[in-house]
């Protein structure tokens, strides 16, 4: 099982992709007021979620 993962480049890319996704997750948190996921690297998103009683940001 481990050998198959190590020597199959497709599975290796999937593992790297999953690891990259886990690293991305540390930048997100759930807003306690509107329950929307907020990317803490996005200053506009952070500022939007500061006021009490705000609405969730529109999603494209
Ligand atoms: Zn919010």
UniProtKB/TrEMBL annotation:
* Domain of life according to the entry: Bacteria
User: Any idea what this protein is called?
Assistant: Uncharacterized protein
